[in-house]
Every structure is written in structure tokens, then in C-alpha cells.
């Protein structure tokens, strides 16, 4: 049996400890390089702290294209060819160019310990809910951009903007147990509170659809009571509600109607319209439907339980293929270039 001298063993151990420490404190960025052309499907992996990219035209998948901050919570495309990722624990927004992999273009720091939760782009500013400080941040999303904070009611979770008005959804009981839900409406230019809307408990996500001029607010309290409220942003009234019987997540357009996954609760996808009708519920067979992205007849579905992104034909309700993702794929979107 080959024997090592004690001094050599000590040296090897020291080198290994140094390498481990270096890898923990300074994560290696992905190798920079150009990406294929055409449409990009991008999603963040909540447990791996990475972003994956898929290019449908060339059927090319780039795993770990970017490294995010700690606990990414949301992803948006704010201009052609660029995405922004919101990081909760590291309190930052990162901007990436999908035309190449590797490092970030720049990042903007948000208040430390604020737990940035969700964000919305209104064409001029990024709006971010700061869960633990009962604030929203108005961010100039450019390199070195400014951050302005506005105080709101406790438990701000979801957010969307029409351009002139900002709608802030409030979560249920955390961190303030006295607040269980509702929407606060802000004037986008002044930050003044214009009104409040009494929704059901726990506004978990919202989106403004400029094509129809309506805000969709998704609420649920984890007992199969998920409601989708269609809100008129001008009158600030709830026009109708759709009972899904589940836990509807972030909504997307699907043809002339809309769709929302059942989050981490099941593999269902809910189809509905603004007339207040649940037109279909599709059991995809997935373990979860955390995020959806629709392009034509194609639907991309993140399943954070089994680390897959499914490609489906949502019109025929058929799963076509699956893509290997990083650990915990969640938010997903299509990026035009």
C-alpha cells in the first residue's frame, strides 16, 4: 500500500480547504459566449441560483447561462434582448443580455434585509415590493440607476403597473398578522395612495394586460379557494371573479383568453376569460406548474419538483417534450430579440 508523508497530507488538505473556500465565496460565472438567434425562453432556478436559456428555433438549451444572487424570486423582460432577475436574500436586481452568456451587464442594490419579492416594469421604471420593510421601490433600471422607496401597508407581495397607476397586492399574515390581503393603488408619479381594493385574502400575483386594459389579481389561502379577480384599473373596482378551486399563479395570455398554473400545489393549468368564466382546467400530469409562458400554440411550463420545463400544445392539451432545468425552475418568460 502506498504511504503518504504527513507533510504531504497536510499540504493536500490545506489546498482542498482553500479551493472549497474560494468556490463558496467567489462562485465561478458561466463562460461568456454568443447565443443562438431567434426567440428565447428564459427561466430562473430558485434553488440553483442560475438562469437557463432555451432557443426554440435551433432547439438549443443553455443550462446555467447566468448566475443570480441569493434566492431569485422573479424574472421579467424590460426591453428587447434583456432580462432582469430579482434576488430576495441578496436584495438586488440583475440585468442580463440574452445575446450572450456569462456575467451580468450590471446590478442595482435594493435596501438590505428588505426581502424584495416581486417586480413590474411600466416602460419607464421598475417597481419592486419590499416585503419586510412594508415598502415598494421605484427603480431607474439603468446602470447606476436610482432607487426611491415608498411606504405602503404591511405585507406587500405582488405588484403591477399601468404606467400611471401602481397596484400593490398584500399577502396573508406575514410578517404582520393583522394584514391578510387587499390591493393598494398608488399614483406612479407621486407615490400617493389613491385607493384600496378589498380583494380576498393573500394577493399572491398580479398582472396588467395592456391589450384588454384590465388587472388580473390572483388570490388563495392554500385551501383550494383560489380566485382570479378582474380589476378595472380606472374605476378601481372588481368587475368579476373566477373560482379555480386551486392556487392560481402568475397569469399569461393564451389565444383570446388567459391561463394560470396551479403553482406548487398541483400540475393543473386554469384557462379563463375576463367575462368571469373558467373555460377549462387541464391536468397536465406534471408535479407542479410554477410558471407558464405562451407563444402561439406552444406553452412552456416549469415544474420545480422534478426540475423540468415542459413544452406543450395548450390548444390540444398535449405534452410534447421536456427540457432538463437547474434545481427548482420557477419563473419563466419569452424574450423577443
In percent, how helical is the residue content?
A: under 10%
User: How many distinct helices?
Assistant: 1
Shape, principal axes of CA atoms: globular
Separation, N- and C-terminal Cα atoms: 61 Å
Strand content: over 45%
Q: From the coordinates shown, what is the CATH architecture of the domain at 249-337?
A: Beta Barrel
In the sheet with the most strands, the strands line up as: 4-3-2-30
Q: Report Rg.
A: 21 Å
| Helix-strand category | mainly beta
The CATH class designation of the domain at 249-337 is Mainly Beta
CATH topology-level name of the domain at 249-337? Thrombin, subunit H
The average pLDDT value, as a whole number, equals 91
Description:
The structure is a single chain. It contains one helix and 30 strands. The chain is mainly beta and 337 residues long. The protein has a domain of 89 residues: Thrombin, subunit H (Beta Barrel). The strands form eight sheets. A four-stranded antiparallel beta sheet has the order 4-3-2-30, with no helix packed on it. It has a four-stranded antiparallel beta sheet with strand order 5-6-7-9, with no helix packed on it. Strand 12 and strand 13 form a beta hairpin. The longest helix is centred in the N-terminal third of the chain and has 20 residues. The N terminus is likely disordered.
Which features would summarize this protein structure in a list?
30 strands, single chain, 1 helix, four-stranded antiparallel beta sheet, mainly beta, 337 residues
Amino acid at each position: 500500500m502506498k504511504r503518504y508523508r504527513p507533510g504531504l497530507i497536510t499540504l493536500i488538505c490545506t489546498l482542498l480547504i482553500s479551493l472549497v473556500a474560494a468556490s463558496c465565496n467567489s462562485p465561478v460565472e458561466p463562460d461568456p459566449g454568443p447565443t443562438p438567434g431567434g426567440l428565447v425562453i428564459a427561466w430562473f432556478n430558485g434553488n440553483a441560483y442560475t438562469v437557463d436559456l432555451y432557443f426554440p428555433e435551433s432547439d438549443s438549451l443553455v443550462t446555467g447561462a447566468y448566475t443570480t444572487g441569493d434566492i431569485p424570486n422573479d424574472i421579467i423582460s424590460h426591453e428587447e434582448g434583456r432580462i432582469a432577475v430579482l434576488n430576495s436574500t441578496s436584495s438586488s436586481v440583475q440585468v442580463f443580455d440574452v445575446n450572450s452568456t456569462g456575467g451580468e451587464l450590471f446590478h442595482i442594490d435594493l435596501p438590505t434585509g428588505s426581502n424584495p419579492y416581486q417586480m413590474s416594469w411600466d416602460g419607464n421604471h421598475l417597481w419592486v415590493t419590499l416585503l419586510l420593510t412594508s415598502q415598494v421601490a421605484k427603480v431607474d433600471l439603468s446602470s447606476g440607476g436610482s432607487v426611491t422607496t415608498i411606504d405602503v401597508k404591511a405585507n406587500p407581495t405582488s405588484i403591477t403597473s399601468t404606467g400611471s397607476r401602481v397596484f400593490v397586492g398584500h399577502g396573508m399574515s406575514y410578517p404582520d398578522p393583522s394584514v391578510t390581503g387587499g390591493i393598494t393603488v398608488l399614483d406612479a408619479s407621486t407615490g400617493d395612495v389613491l385607493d384600496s381594493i378589498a380583494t380576498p385574502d393573500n394577493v399572491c400575483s398580479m398582472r396588467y394586460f395592456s391589450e384588454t386594459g384590465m388587472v388580473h389579481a390572483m388570490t388563495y389561502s392554500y385551501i383550494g379557494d383560489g380566485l382570479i379577480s378582474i380589476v378595472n384599473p380606472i374605476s378601481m373596482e372588481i368587475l368579476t371573479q373566477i373560482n379555480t378551486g386551486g392556487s392560481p399563479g402568475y397569469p399569461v395570455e393564451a389565444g383570446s383568453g388567459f391561463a394560470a398554473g396551479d403553482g406548487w400545489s398541483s400540475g393543473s393549468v386554469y384557462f379563463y376569460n375576463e367575462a368571469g368564466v373558467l373555460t377549462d382546467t387541464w391536468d397536465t400530469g406534471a408535479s407542479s406548474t410554477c410558471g407558464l409562458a405562451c407563444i402561439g400554440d406552444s406553452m412552456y411550463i416549469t415544474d420545480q419538483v422534478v426540475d423540468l420545463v415542459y413544452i406543450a400544445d395548450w390548444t390540444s392539451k398535449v405534452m410534447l417534450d421536456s427540457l432538463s432545468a437547474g434545481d427548482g425552475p420557477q419563473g419563466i418568460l419569452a424574450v423577443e430579440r
